[in-house]
Amino acid sequence: MNTETLQAALPEYFAPWVQSLGLMVEAFDGQSVTLRLPQNPALSRVGDMLCGQAMMAAADTAMVLALINHFGEFKPCTTVQMNSSFLKPLSKQDALIEARVLRAGKSLAFGEIDIRGANDGKSVSRATTTYALL
């Protein structure tokens, strides 16, 4: 796996509105993928706070890329469950979204996602996910 392959998956497998988030593959290792979500006024609320909807879309996208990284290829999947907790607002900085595969079997995959500020490294949201592998 390489950064270019993971970045190329965004236009290949995701809807145009997800692509418009401007997500960029920042890093990856054997179990995780980290994306950067650039600060964008179109995704912000009052006080330049990143909206929760953008965070969850980025988290879901990062997890699919983590599954591609895990399997070495795209496998059709769908989100079955996503449980998120918002810890604090994120303002005036990019977000880093780290998605980690906890377990992937034949029909289900489980993961966790941490969203943190790119400048200060503080967690702003945590999520757990379950995906059906189709």
TrEMBL record:
CDD domains: PaaI_thioesterase (cd03443). Residues 54-121 form the Thioesterase domain. GO terms for molecular function: fatty acyl-CoA hydrolase activity. It comes from the Bacteria. InterPro entries: ACOT13, HotDog_dom_sf, Thioestr_dom. Keywords: Hydrolase. Pfam families: 4HBT. PANTHER family: ACYL-COENZYME A THIOESTERASE 13 (PTHR21660:SF1), THIOESTERASE SUPERFAMILY MEMBER-RELATED (PTHR21660). Belongs to the thioesterase PaaI family. This is Thioesterase domain-containing protein. It comes from Polaromonas eurypsychrophila. The lineage of its organism: Bacteria, Pseudomonadati, Pseudomonadota, Betaproteobacteria, Burkholderiales.
